[in-house]
Amino acid sequence: MSQKDPYQHLREQIRAVCADFPDAYWRDLDARRAYPEEFVAALTRTGWLSALIPKEYGGLGLGLTEASVILEEVNRCGGNAGPAHAQMYVMGTILRHASEEQRQRWLPPIARGELRLQAFAITEPGAGSDTTRIMTFAERQGDVYVVNGRKIYISRVLQSDLMLLLARTSPRSDQAHRAEGMSIFVVDLRQAGDALRVRPLRMLMNNHVNELEFINLRVPAENLVGEEGKGFRAVIDSWNAERILIAAECVGDARWFVERASRYASEREVFDRKLGENQSIQFAIASAYAQTEAADLMRFKAAALFDAGQPCGPEANMAKLLASNASWAAANACLDTFGGNGFNAEYDVERKFRETRLYQVAPISNNLILGYLGNRVLGMPKSF
After folding, report:
1. In a domain, 297, yes or no
2. Cα 135 vs. chain centroid, distance in angstroms?
3. Phi/psi class of residue 66: alpha, beta or left (left: φ > 0; alpha: ψ in -120 to 50)?
């Protein structure tokens, strides 16, 4: 990284926090499928998890660009920012759509670490990536909404105090536009009781994911975020932020892979020559490096647009597409370089390999991004 990097000091501060959580820490968590409580507590204590919360609510008041650097460095240091990143990307929804009373109620305790907001329930078994087809319904009954339905692949519910929920407040068939009729709520998980059933799912990587069932869950009407029926717009804001932050994490992963592979290829000797002397090894690593640097530029462009309050849908999607492809190319180059050692958990390559593979399909499939670009940006016929 160039010494002219304007975020060098920020990077050094994040690396200082990560230094207390070396590879062995993450390797042990991965083996036990355990949540990194100590790491999340450290990020909270040092204030980095409240990066996007404005100073008047007790946060650092930084932009999405700085938040992306924070998460990038976590992954570049060998960690996994996934267990903590939701508290970053949901801030776009809260800050842009919540009322002042709601911001005053939730943001200061989140900034102080007294409340944890790490879950956003959108995806459903029958809808998949077509969010407009969700069926979970929130019926207004006086001063509460009564929620019934199911969600799947919802992360960190058991590690959160609050959760954002997207639910229908009017049937899809009643809407002239399929994206209308959905609303966002803040659910206090501490008060859900038996009305919320949580079933943990074991995943390919150490990711705390759940299936949820809502059975007459009562949510105070004052917890409605924004205007009833207009929640999809707020979700898009969170999606753009999420994709930019995921892109940054992928850049961090890619740099970890490239750095590990380059060092190993320069040190490891096979058949009386350094591995890196072989073009099949060297060129794959160099290609992944070039892809990473290009993706990084798009990440910063998208983040700058988001911070300026300008439309950034194409840029956010392209950043996620390019960065996840770069990290996957780097992961494969690194695994090939390490050979058999790459499959050995003690080298950490296989752990990071599994973690970065997720971003080919989540939080949105790269094929859907290509379809979006082809249709919405390039004007070709809709492909799905």
Report:
1. yes
2. 24
3. alpha
Q: Of 167, 200, 230, which closes a domain?
A: 230
On whether both 48 and 144 belong to a single domain, the answer is no
Q: How far is CA 32 from the centre of its chain?
A: 22
Q: Domain ends where: 196, 230, 264? A: 230
Do residues 239 and 373 both lie within one domain? Answer: yes
Angle between the N-to-C axes of helices 82-89 and 37-45, in degrees from 0 to 180, rounded to the nearest 10:
40
- Domain containing 239 equals 233-377
Amino acid symbol at 73? E
User: Given pLDDT bands bounded at 50, 70 and 90, which one contains residue 92?
Assistant: confident
CA 250 – CA 288 distance, rounded (Å) = 12
The candidate with the shortest Cα–Cα distance to 355, out of 83, 128, 40, is 83
Backbone angles phi, psi at 158, to 5 degrees: -75, -10
- CA–CA separation, 219 vs 139, rounded Å? 10
296 φ/ψ angles, rounded to the nearest 5 degrees = -60, -40
Nearest to 132 by CA among 12, 201, 229: 229
Reported pTM: 0.96
Is the domain of 106 the same as that of 125? Answer: no
Tell me the CATH number at 306: 1.20.140.10
pLDDT at 234: 84
Q: How many domains does the chain have?
A: 3
Task: For 42-55, write each residue's pLDDT tens digit.
Answer: 999 999 999 999 99
Identity of residue 273: R
CA 73 from centroid of its chain's CA atoms: 14
Q: How far apart, in whole angstroms, are the C-alpha atoms of residue 278 and residue 302?
A: 37
Q: Indicate left, alpha or beta for 55 from its phi (over 0: left) and psi (-120 to 50: alpha).
A: alpha
For β-strands 137-141 and 196-201, DSSP reports them as unpaired
CA distances 243 to 27, 64, 253, 320, 360, Å, are 26, 11, 15, 5, 12
Where does the chain have alpha helices with state H? 8-18, 23-32, 37-45, 64-76, 82-89, 91-97, 100-111, 231-267, 279-307, 313-338, 349-357, 366-372
Same domain, residue pair 55 and 189: no
